[in-house]
Design brief:
Length: 453
């Protein structure tokens, strides 16, 4: 009897919380582990991020109520592209998130737990509490995990109140970045890019440009050396935009060191240790007054442990054109956790969403996948407090631009779109399943592109 009373109490608490959020059902709250039952669903989505939410909206709208289950333990859904702006003091953390219960579709079931074990041979996923979920179709939208612990000394440095080390990649630390900008008066401001895949690979250098501009605005730039140490061999992977960025860093006296990877921090001495990736025996110790760190990233450990689903690098092994798993026809992936060799951005997930949706529906009907993702990704390269280069490109790293103007130039219009328009598009259109990327807009505007250079 006590177990029943406990379960009733938990359900009452969930109802109270749901009422405060303006919800009227209990389906968005996890089942007490003591009452966990085996579940079955038409589609199971692991991950409630950008791609997971968008596909949950599309699929549940088509399949009907309670045909889709989303597994995600998070209370909050963050619009992560805003983190760079938060680091520069242009937005706040409070503006960057909404309750997960508010952004998930109302006609799905949300299991507020972590997916712990994957068994694609038996079409099941088991949650952290031991609940087994059997699916007809599986969509993996698990994103990337931040491995701050992989750099010795980093977590210790981030734990120092009012410290000199910061990172825009986590809501736990993003506010420290603006604090560091305000606190530094002289010395070395060092920014990093790790030797691993990262989400939004333009963000590590966006915060460099924003910081350098801030130092100039505060009349302290002449006392601060700005350095960008990137593990990449280039400043940006798309030559069309890299050629536009090199003159910017030269004009603004930003030192760029390629193939230089952060391997350790000694916070007690304010020293960062880097290695030359081309000559690993070559190490560099650099003193910092401010250090912005982008952590190494990987797919979630639980997913990477399922060798049937992932490739040798731990990413979901999919056909890059159809986003269907190469071995399991009823498994698809979207967003950062997939092995598709596109830039890991929210824009990429938006462009993938109609392809994944239509191909999943085709498989459900016994047909083959015929929709193709072209690798589209977008990276609004914010270069200061009022300028932005809007990079858009495909799998082949060729420009795939939307607007009838040269996008490899700094523009206020692109900055305004990044800062004020894209968040609205994300919250109200993409997460509701209505935004499929700018392909349609690009086609409509193509008539104006004659003579563009």
């Amino acid at each position: 009897m006590s177990g029943v009373l406990q379960a009733a109490s938990l359900r009452l608490m969930a109802f109270s919380k749901a009422s405060n959020l303006g919800l009227i059902t209990l389906r968005s709250f996890s089942v007490s582990p003591s009452l966990a039952q085996k579940k079955e669903c038409k589609v199971l989505i692991v991950g409630g991020g950008s791609g997971g939410c968008a596909l949950a909206a599309k699929l549940s709208s088509k399949l009907g109520k309670n045909k889709v289950i989303v597994v995600d333990p998070a209370d909050k859904h963050y619009y992560q592209p805003m983190f760079t702006l938060i680091g520069g003091g242009m937005k706040t953390v409070e503006q960057s998130y909404k309750p997960m219960a508010q952004v998930l579709p109302k006609n799905i079931e949300w299991i507020k737990e972590k997916a712990q074990h994957f068994d694609p041979n038996n079409n099941t996923v088991t949650t952290a509490s031991g609940q087994e979920i059997k699916y007809d179709m599986l969509l993996l939208a698990a994103g990337l995990q931040l491995n701050y612990n992989k750099i010795p000394g980093l977590l210790d440095a981030l734990a120092i109140p009012n410290g000199k080390v910061c990172s825009i990649y986590s809501p736990l630390y993003v506010d420290r970045t603006y604090d560091c900008l305000r606190n530094i008066t002289e010395g070395n401001a060092i920014f990093t890019f790790p030797s691993s895949p990262v989400k939004c690979p333009g963000a590590p250098q966006k915060i460099v440009y924003i910081s350098e501009h801030y130092f100039r605005k505060m009349n302290k730039r002449n006392k601060i050396n700005v350095t960008y140490n990137t593990a990449l061999p280039v400043i940006f992977g798309v030559k069309h935009y890299a050629d536009a960025l090199w003159p910017i860093v030269k004009k603004r006296k930003i030192q760029v060191n390629t193939r230089r990877n952060l391997i350790e921090i000694k916070p007690e001495n304010d020293v960062a240790i880097f290695e030359n990736l081309d000559k690993p025996e070559e190490k560099f110790e650099e003193k910092y007054s401010m250090l912005h760190v982008v952590p190494p990233m990987s797919t979630p450990t639980e997913l990477a442990n399922c060798k049937e689903l992932v490739n040798e690098t731990g990413f979901v092994d999919v056909n890059k054109d159809t986003m269907q798993h190469v071995r399991y026809q009823n498994v698809f992936a979207i967003g950062d956790c997939s092995s598709s060799p596109n830039s890991k951005t929210a824009a990429a997930a938006a462009a993938q969403s109609p392809v994944v949706f239509k191909n999943m529906m085709a498989v459900m009907k016994g047909k083959s996948c015929d929709k193709v993702y072209d690798g589209y990704a977008s990276c609004p390269l914010v270069t200061g407090y009022k300028t932005c280069i809007l990079a858009e490109f495909d799998y082949n790293l060729n420009p795939l631009e939307t607007f009838p103007v040269p996008q490899n130039k700094e523009r206020y219009s692109m900055f305004y779109m990044k800062k004020d328009m894209m968040p609205l598009l994300y919250w109200h259109v993409m997460l509701n399943g209505y935004w499929n990327g700018p392909a349609l807009m690009r086609n409509m505007l193509s008539v104006f592109k004659f003579g563009k250079n």
